[in-house]
């Protein structure tokens, strides 16, 4: 079974600069639970071709820890460098949602998936912690499409982009982001949460401190930990079946 990891090149370049050359932090490991949920949502069997669309900056560290044989390749999510009907399974965990052109990204996921195959996405919900954090970052001039990335966490947006091409199921879920303190969580998010990592590498110092203050206030508002900082973040798992006859 092969797996290739791709990212939008413009976002990846900034994310690479902000990403540390070390093992994933506690926050970076948080999405492993959604990743497991995505992998378990459909059957993956030996011999299948599997594509995961995500962020190269964090993929290398996870692959190194896993010991799995995985091929990493950089590319542009709205123009994947693969032939039509190339993969049995197409997976994306908080990756494709940040592509600037939502229609193009959706079309590419469908195009590279073979008829009878499955596409599974994990997307942050707009009303959860990650969704609210993403909205804060966008308020500081983060580049992006007219649609917010977390629109992918709503039923209507998913059905508008994919409903005419796939048979869809959408399931709500939540994951806890845990750190020893609010300051530690904020520091981890600056390297592990893509929009904030990009903003931290690009904003002027004063604007960055203002952004950090807003994020810290959000963490304090939602912190439900006892002796540690624990913030729940809602997301949805989207399962799409590509019919044999389109």
**Which strand order does the major sheet show?**
3-1-2-4-5-7-6
CATH architecture: 3-Layer(aba) Sandwich
Number of strands: 7
Shape type: globular
Helix percentage range = 40-55%
Largest sheet: 7 strands, mixed
Provide the gyration radius in Å. Answer: 17 Å
Helix/strand order: EHHHEHEEHEHHEHHHE
* Percentage beta strand: 15-25%
CATH class: Alpha Beta
Query: End-to-end span in angstroms?
Result: 26 Å
Number of helices: 10
- Poorly predicted regions: 1-29
Overall pLDDT metric: 80
Q: And the CATH topology?
A: Rossmann fold
Based on helices, strands and strand pairing, what is the structural class? alpha/beta
Q: Tell me the name of the CATH homologous superfamily.
A: Vaccinia Virus protein VP39
The domain tally reads 1
Structural description of this entry:
By secondary structure, the chain is of the alpha/beta class. It has a single domain (4-241), classed as Vaccinia Virus protein VP39 (Rossmann fold). The protein contains 10 helices and 7 strands. A 7-stranded mixed beta sheet has the order 3-1-2-4-5-7-6, with helices on both faces. The longest helix is centred in the C-terminal third of the chain and has 18 residues, at 205-222.
How would you summarize what this structure contains?
The chain has 246 residues and is of the alpha/beta class. Helices cover 41% and strands 22% of the residues.
């Amino acid at each position: 079974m092969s797996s290739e990891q791709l990212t939008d090149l413009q976002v990846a370049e900034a994310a690479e600069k902000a990403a540390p050359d070390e093992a994933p932090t506690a926050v970076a490991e948080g999405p492993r639970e959604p990743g497991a949920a995505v992998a378990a949502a459909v059957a993956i069997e030996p011999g299948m071709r599997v594509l995961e669309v995500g962020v190269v900056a964090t993929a290398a560290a996870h692959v190194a820890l896993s010991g799995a044989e995985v091929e990493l390749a950089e590319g542009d999510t709205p123009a994947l460098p693969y032939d039509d009907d190339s993969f049995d399974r197409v997976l994306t965990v908080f990756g494709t949602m940040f592509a600037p052109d939502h229609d193009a990204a959706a079309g590419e996921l469908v195009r590279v998936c073979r008829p009878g195959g499955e596409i599974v996405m994990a997307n942050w919900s707009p009303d959860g912690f990650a969704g609210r954090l993403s909205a804060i970052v966008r308020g500081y001039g983060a580049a992006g499409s007219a649609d917010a990335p977390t629109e992918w966490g709503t039923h209507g947006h998913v059905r508008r982009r994919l409903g005419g091409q796939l048979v869809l199921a959408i399931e709500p879920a939540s994951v806890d982001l845990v750190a020893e303190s609010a300051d530690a969580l904020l520091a981890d998010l600056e390297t592990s949460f893509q929009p904030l990592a990009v903003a931290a590498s690009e904003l002027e110092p004063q604007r960055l401190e203002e952004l950090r203050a807003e994020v810290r206030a959000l963490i304090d508002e939602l912190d439900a930990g006892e002796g540690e900082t624990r913030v729940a973040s809602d997301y949805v798992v989207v399962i799409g079946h590509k019919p044999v006859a389109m």
